[in-house]
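Task card 7
Instruction: Convert sequence to structure tokens.
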Amino acid sequence: MLLLASFLALAGVALAQQPDILAMERAWVQAITTRDAAILANLLDDQLIYAHATGIVDTKQEYIAKVTSGRQKYEGVDHESTDVRLFGDTAVVHARMHMWGVNPAGKFDDRLMMMHVWVKKGGAWQLVAHQTARLP
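Output:
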């Protein structure tokens, strides 16, 4: 009985944290579409690995500079489906996305599969890894 109670308590904590992660995903979208360097600086971990579907990999500083300069301009981002898995202070988000905007190669309008890894540090969630792959 104690084991069942412990399991249910942990499941309750995991379910309670899912809205936190979904809020972090919305904050990330808001920050990249409005080119908000301050919000990005808080959301992104200093050791961020940001891998684009193009194969380009950015550090936190490179990605913030790219977004805030307008070199990578997101005009819209939609999470079409989202699955959140929690592992203690780590959350893995898998989503199908629609992202569109303009980058140095020109306009883009991509359907993507995205993976985000969030880690809770000092009570706050930070994005430590981003990976996208284009969908046909």
